[in-house]
Amino acid sequence: MHFEQSLSEGINIRRFAVIGHRAMNKGKLPLNDLAGGAGRMDVLIRALMSALLTSHGLRSDVEVILHLQGGPGPHRRLKFVGSELRGFHAEERSVAGLIAKAIREPSPAIGQWIERTPGLYDGGGNLGHTLSEWKNSIFIRLDADAERLWKQNEPIPSESLPNEQTIAFLLSDDQPLETDEGIPRSLGSTWLQGHHAIAICHFLLDEGVQLNL
Ligand SMILES: C[S@@+](CC[C@H](N)C(=O)[O-])C[C@H]1O[C@@H](n2cnc3c(N)ncnc32)[C@H](O)[C@@H]1O
Fold first, then answer.
1. Is 47 touching ligand 1 by the criterion CB < 6 Å?
2. What's 209's DSSP letter?
């Protein structure tokens, strides 16, 4: 089933927009230097894996857009659609290989998505474009200093009751987010690695913890 079709049929989607301030967006991705020359692509890959993978499989209800802002080309976006992905494995280097395949191609125009490998779409544009494409989502900006994401004094359900809202989360790489978009919400006052923050979001939604929205 194509992703847009699943949306129109009312299947709930979890979305993650990740900003890669220095992430390279064109040319030959240095697979042996993902943290350095590739502009902290390692951080984005960990976020991607945390968003899409369970212990033994893929989350089919998840969509991730990586925002590659580090040049040398204009801002570029890579969209990973859980229900369509093939060849996405729990191994950083193989995920980097999928990204490498996409960014060695010329960058598509803004508003155009080109499927590079099954479930991996390559497009132009920036966070503003993602926001308008995801306007049917509750958009949450993850920020440790904000109000908590969950309602205070509500119990954690004793059985998993997955949240059925279409929610999008915005997070950054290792640099601060410079935007006021979205509802700011915290996962606790300690700043975490982005992939850990994503794992906590999944926990809260998988278990149906009441959210403070
Ligand atoms: C490594 S942190 C970025 C830290 C960066 N120095 C800053 O000041 O934003 C990566 C992302 O994870 C999310 N994050 C980390 N800890 C969080 C927390 N306790 N609550 C909510 N979001 C958090 C934020 O969206 C953050 O942009």
1. no
2. P
3-state secondary structure of 48: helix
d(CA 77, CA 79): 6
Element (H, E) at 85: none
197 CB near ligand 1 (under 6 Å): yes
183 close to ligand 1 (CB < 6 Angstrom): no
Pairing of β 120-124 and β 167-172 = unpaired
How sure is the predictor about 12, in pLDDT bands with cuts at 50, 70 and 90?
A: confident
What pLDDT score was predicted for residue 111? 86
Specify the 3-state DSSP secondary structure of 3.
Answer: helix
Q: How far is the CA of 9 from the centre of ligand 1 (A)?
A: 33
pLDDT tens figures, 66-75: 999 999 999 9
Q: Ligand 1 atom 27: the closest Cα is on which residue?
A: 172
Distance (Å) from CA 183 to ligand 1 centroid: 14
Distance, in Å, from the CA atom of 49 to the CA atom of 58, rounded to the nearest integer, reads 9
Burial pattern 187-201, b for ≥16 Cβ within 10 A else e, equals: beeeeeebbebbebb
| Cα 106–chain centre separation | 22
Q: Mention the CATH class of domain 3-207.
A: alpha beta
**Using an 8 Å Cβ cutoff, are 187 and 143 in contact?**
no
Q: Which atom number of ligand 1 is nearest to the Cα of residue 192?
A: 16
